[in-house]
Amino acid sequence: MKKIFYVLLIISLVSCCKETSPYSNKKDSIVSDPNNINVSILIDLSDRIDPETNPNPTMEYFRRDTEYIKAIEKGFLNHIKSKRIITCDDQMQVFFNPEPSDSKINDFTKDLKITFDKNTRKDYFSSVEKKYSELPLNIYQSAIHDKNYVGSDIWEFFKNKINDYCIKNDKRNILFILTDGYMYHKNTRFEEKNENSSKTSYLTTKLIKANNLNTSNFKDIIKKNGYGYVKANDNLTNLEVIVLGINPEKGNPFEESVIKEYWENWFKEMKIKNYQIKSADLPSNLEPIILKAISGK
Length: 297
Prior knowledge:
By secondary structure, this protein is α/β, with parallel strands linked by helices. The chain has ten helices and nine strands.
């Protein structure tokens, strides 16, 4: 009986120590905290922002972008202000892919990377507001002035960079993509075809026409031929995506719907559950949507 008693006592002590040990592996139990957010903004610096190539008398597209970014910054700061500073562990940053050759733009990008933690001073709020009211416009004006539109390799960003740049395991991750919806970059242009599908890493108005996606039954055509984007990532369940600025070329009344269908199917294939795809509307109309997306309410 004594032996059995001692064995049970040892097992009990070992069990207690294991449960309370300060050396237990915390990494295995990391849980996403919805109160801490990680906001990323991926900007498409293609000629879509050129006021000469794509003019809009109501409001130029580059100005819409800068107002979208201000709304994102507003939503981010509203989130911070709703918390006690001691609980803050939040960040926001801007990305381009590929990086612009203009060193000024890259410097602006560094200044737009901001972090709030328990040691953040109160005057940092006004500093962030100032940066996000000035620097995004400087970025767009610099790109337009240089006329060197590097485009945006969105597919490659999702394939090789999004996990490292935009996803933190202990945070709620939100990615805003500012683009007209067409996906194309000369360095990442390929097709994958088989008996059941015809996937591409790009989408242009020329491809939409070639695939006869200009009628009301475009969804049936897409499904029958397996049209869509090549999957770029296997599991992005810990990421929310909001695409802003969809701007189809004129001539095909179904073009915008085709663009959105491509994006939606792509997101679903990569297991992104929470996403929104919005047209290039006026910032005053999209701001409430942006604020709600960040607040999660």
